[in-house]
Amino acid sequence: MKNWKIFIIVFLLFVSGFFVYHTYRLTLQNKHIQQEYGILNELFNDNTNYNIQLEDSIARLHRQMIEGDKLSLKGNKKALEYFEKFYPEIQTDWEKYILDTLMKTNRNNNDNPLVPYEGMDGNMRIDNAKVLNNRWIIAHFTDGTYSGEMIIRYDVNKNNTIDFKVLDQTLFGN
Questions:
Q1: DSSP bridge partners of 166
Q2: Can you tell me the distance from the alpha carbon of 155 to that of 87, in angstroms, rounded to the nearest whole number?
Q3: How many domains does the chain have?
Q4: Residue 94's CB: how many other CB atoms inside 10 A?
Q5: Residue 73, Cβ neighbours under 10 Å: how many?
Q6: Secondary structure element (H or E) that encloses residue 136, with its range
Q7: DSSP bridge pairs for 151
Q8: Cβ atoms within 10 A of the Cβ of 112, count?
Q9: 68, 90, 116 — which closes off a domain?
Q10: Could you tell me if 2 and 64 lie in one domain?
Q11: Could you give the CA distance from residue 110 to residue 156 in angstroms, rounded to a whole number?
């Protein structure tokens, strides 16, 4: 009976030692993981701060591009003041309104009447344009193969319709 008690005591000491050893190893691993997590957390915070700085820089550059582009309606304060002065009752994005009206001149089955050339490989259509100020637009046109550009004068009428007149154009070919 005495041997049996010694055997149980030795067995419990062995099991306790086993648990103490593995608890010690897990604690060391946990400390190592916490250190790695701390480093990763610092890197994540650094990246987050860097991303915020990049977003701020991009937004600042975007503002500078719009405000600094004097050859665009949005960057031309005098042209915008013109619309505010002569059309104060209309609250709209003038550039979008003008471009939408210009693009409506593209007809489904015919050449655009503003393009001074007939399409050779399809219908000539305006595919891109930029409003320069309160009077002029530069527009790109193409039939899919041949393309060109033109300067258009536009006038906003009292009934808010827009008249377009081509001032000059060039055809590039293919």
A1: 152
A2: 12
A3: 2
A4: 19
A5: 23
A6: strand 136-142
A7: 138, 168
A8: 21
A9: 68
A10: yes
A11: 25
Report CA-CA distances (Å) from 146 to 122, 123, 143.
Answer: 9, 10, 6
Take residue 79 and report the two structure tokens written for it. 């042209």
Residue-range definition of the domain harbouring residue 39: 1-68
Which of 94, 103, 100, 58 lies closest to 74, judged by CA? 94
Q: Which of 41, 68, 95 is the last residue of a domain?
A: 68
* pLDDT values of the chain reduced to their tens digit, one per residue, 174 residues: 567 878 888 888 888 888 888 888 888 888 888 787 777 778 777 778 778 888 888 888 777 666 666 677 877 888 888 888 888 877 778 889 999 999 999 977 788 899 998 888 888 999 999 999 999 999 999 988 899 999 999 998 888 889 999 999 999 866
Phi, psi of 157 (to 5 degrees): -85, 170
Please tell me the distance from the alpha carbon of residue 94 to that of residue 80, in angstroms, as a whole number. 8
**Which of 108, 104, 110, 109 lies closest to 129 in space, CA to CA?**
104
How does DSSP classify residue 105?
Answer: T
CB 146 within 8 A of CB 172: yes
Residues 6 or more apart whose CB falls under 8 angstroms from that of 165 comprise 152, 153, 154, 155
Q: Say if residues 146 and 120 touch (Cβ distance below 8 Å).
A: yes
